[in-house]
Write a structure and sequence with these properties.
This protein is α/β, with parallel strands linked by helices. It has helices spanning 15-26, 49-61, 67-83, 90-103, 107-126, 133-136, 147-158, 186-196, 230-238, 250-253, 313-323, 344-347, 351-362, 389-399, 425-442, and strands at 3-7, 31-36, 129-130, 164-167, 170-172, 178-180, 201-206, 227-229, 259-263, 272-275, 290-303, 337-343, 366-379, 404-409, 415-421. The chain starts with a strand and ends with a helix.
Amino acid sequence: MIKITKFGGSSLANAQQFQKVKHIIESDPSRRFVVVSAVGRANKHDNKVTDLLYLCQAHMQYHVDCSNVYEMIRQRYIQIRNDLHLHFPIERELDALWNQMKTAISVDELVSRGEYFTARLMAEYLGYAFVDAKDVIRFRYDGSIDYDFCEKSLQRLARNNQPFVMPGFYGSAPDGRIRVMTRGGSDITGSILAKCLHADLYENWTDVSGFLMADPRIVRNPRPIRKITYNELRELSYMGASVLHEDAIFPILDSNIPINILNTNDPDNPGTIIVSELDDDAQDDTIITGIAGKKDFSSISIYKNHMSESVGTVRKALSVFERYRVSIEHIPSGIDSFSVVVATKDIKDIIYDIVNDIRKELEPDQIKVSDEIALISTVGRNMSSHPGISGRIFATLGNNDINIRMIAQGSDEINIIVGVENKDFEKTIAAIYDAFIQEEEKQ
C-alpha cells in the first residue's frame, strides 16, 4: 500500500511538531513519501515563514532594508535544527540565499525557499532522501502541470525503493526557473504525487480533524463530516471552507484516490475522508453535508421590458464583465430582468464604467446595483432525494426575519445558494444548521 502524506505549516511550526510528524510517519510503514509546507505559526502571535518571505520581497521591491525580517526566518530554521540535534548546515544555505537576495532573485524562487528549507530538515530528521520539487514537478508555459514529465520523474525515484521528503508549493518551468503555485499549493503537490505514484490514499495532515458541517465560530460544536464527495468538497471549499486547497482534488479526480484530512495534534481522530462517490452501503440519512459562505458580493440587476423576447441580451451584458475581466458568481433571472452577482472587490473601482457600458450595449429601462450581499451555500448529496428542501430553507429564514436577496441552485442538485445581507450572514448559517441538524438530533 502507498500513502502520500502531506504536512501543513502548523504541523511543522517547531521541533515539537517535527517530533509529532516523525511519530506519525514511523507508525505506518506505508507512509514513505512525504510532502511538506513551509514552517508555519506555532501560535497566533507567530508568523508563517512564507508570509515573512513575501514581506522580504515587498521590502526589496521598494529598496527597504529587510535584514530584520530575514533574521527572523533564519533563527526559526536554526532553532529547529538545533533543537532536533540535526547536522544539516542550514546557516550556509541561508547565507547563500541572503547574498542572492542582494543581487537578483525572482519572487517565486524566494518564497519557495520556505518549503525547501523545511524539507531539507525533515528529510534528515526522518532519515529519508530529499527530492527537490523543481526536479520532478514541471509546469508548461501556460501554467498547467506536465503530468507526463512528473510521472516519469517520480516513478523513476520510486523504483529506487527509498522513502523521500519533497517540498510542496513549487516546481519548475520548462526553462528550469522555479515557479510557485497559489498559496496553499502544497496540497496540490501532494495530489500530484498521489496521482503519479498511483497511491492508495492521500493523507493531508493539518491542525484540524477534518471538515465540520459549519464554521465553529458561528455554530457551537458543529458536527464533523466523516465522509464527503469531491463535488461536495468543491462546493464547500469554494464558498469558504478552507481546510484543503480547492484545486487539490483535480489531479486525483480521475484516479479515484481518496483524501483523508487528519490532525497532526490528534492523530487518532479519523478526520474526514473525501471520495469521488459513496457506495450505497456507505450512504447515510443526513440530508445536509455542510454549510459555508462568503460575504461582500454585489448584484447588478438589469431590467428591460420584453427582455424575454430579445435574443442575446444576457450575452451582451456578460461580454461587458468579460471585457473588464470580472468573474461571474451567479446569474439569477426573471422574465424581464436578470442579475449578475460578482465579488465587490472585483468591481469597486470600475462599477461606473461597467454600468455605463451596459447602458450603451443593452439600453435597459433600469439598472440597480446592490452591495453588502453574502452568499451561503447549503450542500448535500442527499438533498435531491428529499423533496421540499428549498422550501424548508426559505421557511427557516423567513421565521428568523432574514430577507432573501437571491436564490440559486446547482444543476446537479447538491447545493442551494441564498443571498442575504452581510449583517445576516452568521444568523443565516446558524438558522439553517439548526433547522436541519438540531432537528435530526432531536429525533
